[in-house]
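Running co-folding for zinc ion.
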Amino acid sequence: MTEARILSEITARRDSLIALTQDLIRIPTLNPPGRNYREICDYLAARLGTEFKIEFIRAHGAPGDSETYPRWNLLARRDGTAAGECVHFNSHHDVVEVGHGWTRDPFGGELHDGKIYGRGACDMKGGLAASIIAAEAFIAACPDFKGAIEISATADEESGGFGGVAYMAERGYFDPARVQHVIIPEPLHKDRICLGHRGVWWAEIETKGRIAHGSMPFLGDSAIRHMGAVLHEMETALYPMLTGKYTAMPVIPEGARQSTMNINSVHGGEAEPEEGYTGLPAPCVADRCRIIIDRRFLIEESIGDVKDEITALMERVKAQRPTFQYDIRDLFEVQPSMTDKDAPVVRTVAGAIEKVLGKHAEYVVSPGTYDQKHIDRIGKLKNCIAYGPGVLDLAHQPDEWVGVDDMMDSAKVMALTLKELLL
Ligand SMILES: [Zn+2]
């Protein structure tokens, strides 16, 4: 009875869902540098202000925060008529650069064949819109709910989340005494519950040499040749070992169910000449060479072990090269996070997926990280998942889109989740 009423409230909001998603896409919240964060928060405040209490939170002093590009976040809260638990939907409002290859206007929000196109359509303005429609439909159908519903739209997820969820978590917004269930509508697909993500370690490795004239390289010491030895050791020893590390985490796609490492960049010797420079380079032996590595690790590994592997590798190279000197500099690290399959939010969303889609939920883990890391580590809140419409492969791609039917189904799952937890 109640369920039917909630579902029909969602069905009646199809046009509203489309318009909302289009409006959100049309506000180009590009990050970097962090454009239009205030505009999107103002838009959401106007939309939610009649039903929700609105709070604007600027992450003063966070990386990238300035008077030109202030890091604005929005929190909307609706209290029920009695005490109870708080369900929080958290979406990031920033989007990544457009890139090349688009055949649609990346900020046009075009609707075509049931798909809405634009940068951020699936990652994750479609998910934000679905959660708003879910909350509005639930409140209309069941105004006497207990507990509270929160919707946040947060900054900078695409650049680490420090001016967004991390900032709020540090100020207690995700304290388990305040919020009991968190759903992050990232585009993992409407029938999947994402329990967490792998860990990350970014580091810069530098080899050192000695500059000399390129016609007499024996008088110098090439940092590039030293780095070549490092890369060779990675190919022959490290990569085969990483492929052998397999995780019990249900990471998708399958290839990410192992430890992986990307080498993001190599820079050695003279700086690249400026564009348009027509002169020749100077003949010099490279006195330094740097690479940046992006190592993704598993819940079965510790960050200490991951770092020790690289140090051991560098020491092996050093043992074979008398003048070899190196530095390793930590850039960024994230611990893996995985919510228990029996956690209340997981069980509830799984039940709602069965009701709406008539199938069992699939449990997955994301290959890359998202804001769950801050809710888990800083907020100390373990009852957190990612669940939302859209196909992850489309994120950050040209002609990104989100399906209207997928958003509708996800909104139904979210609304039935609210019913289960708040009635
Ligand atoms: Zn995202």
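Result summary
The chain is about 35% helix and 25% strand.
The chain has two domains: 2-197+336-422, 204-334.
Job closed.
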